[in-house]
Amino acid sequence: MFYDIREVETQSLTIQLENGRVEKPKFDHSTSKGFRVLKNGFWGIFEGNVDDNEGIKLAERNAIFKADSAVLEEASKGRFEMRVRRKPEDMPIEEKVELLRDLERIIRDVCISTKIVYLENRRMFRYRDSCGSEVEYVIYRTGVSITGIGKGKTLQFFSRRLMKAGGFEILDNAADKAEEVREVLPKLVNAAAPPSGEMKVVMDPGLAGVFIHEAFGHAVEADHVLQGATVLDGKIGEVVADESVNIYDDPTLPEFGFYPFDDEGIKAERKAIVERGVLRSFLHNRETAKKLGGKPGNARSQGVDVPIVRMSNTFLQPSEYSFYELLEECRNGVYLVGSRGGETNPATGYFHFNAQYGYIIRNGEISEMVRDVSLAGNTLEILRNIRIGNDLDFDPGFCGKAGQLVPVSDGSPHVLCLATVGGA
Length: 424
Description:
Blueprint lengths: L1 E17 L2 E2 L3 E14 L2 E6 L4 H10 L15 E5 L11 H15 L5 E17 L4 E18 L3 E11 L8 H15 L8 E7 L1 H13 L4 H5 L20 E3 L21 E5 L2 E2 L6 H7 L6 E2 L7 E2 L3 E4 L6 H8 L2 E5 L4 E4 L4 E5 L2 E6 L2 E6 L2 E6 H6 L2 E2 L4 E9 L2 E9 L2 E9 L1
Helix pairs in contact: 2-3
């Protein structure tokens, strides 16, 4: 009989400044304890602040059926405490509010509406199981989101965010994000409608990172593989992309998706998903690793919910092309920047995203701005005919799956591909 015990204590603060007015700060402090017992192939689960023996007994009592679940029984031990220069909880709330006001002042005169949000989170995690695992950690996440709405020929919004694992020092350069909003938004409200049809597209790291996460990353989550809900099922060891394509998931990077141990106590390490165009592995928790012969380490949960297979910091490794070489090879097409979300179907490989804005590319040079741009295509077709830049940038966010949100980060260089472009 396998069992595990997770204890999670979180302390978080959010402050919102909307049109110069501070909304009531939201402070949350919670402590929770989750127990799982795997008996006769069936999971029994209990959540409550009780002692270990009682929690295990209550979880075992809920293992009432027989099933075919099994886990990879691997022990981990370790402790990690993130060292930061300025602990967010030690900073006066007045300084946090003043930071928001400084950012709002930068964008105020180009907006008809503004919204600046500050967030901080400290997560303390402790895990032990029947294999002998004992791990614990303390990590911080800090960030701001800056959104402006402007009006010209059209009404448009534009947002930038800076969120990473770390302390208050993460926000030292937050003004750069506000300056970007100030520069882009006045142009965006008067931008032209985009062209439509199949054409060459240069994606910036923000949009290309979302493509890697949404269109490809979810397709390599092993629970989707077991459900037969991914176009990559059965393709381990096969060529699925151009030889220049290398895709990794790395929770050890100091980005927003950082963690030292996953929520099943497995020590974090970089996972090679695709190398030289060949699909090397799926992402696993203990259960999918046992069934498919993989390596665990990507089990994550919100609070002490059931850990499921999730990404962390997923990125496309840089290659050889400079940005200007990509423009030259594109010759005529569009340059698309950022993401406003979209949808993807891992079972078919089809995706449809909305860019924040873009530019026409003529004769290898960036021309006029375009707005409300969409991008669609097939994931594997894009990856088989792609040119990859030599830069790399990460974009943070929260990824939702099975009703749970976890912090992640998507990374990519600029890339050149062929896709279908249209209006959003």
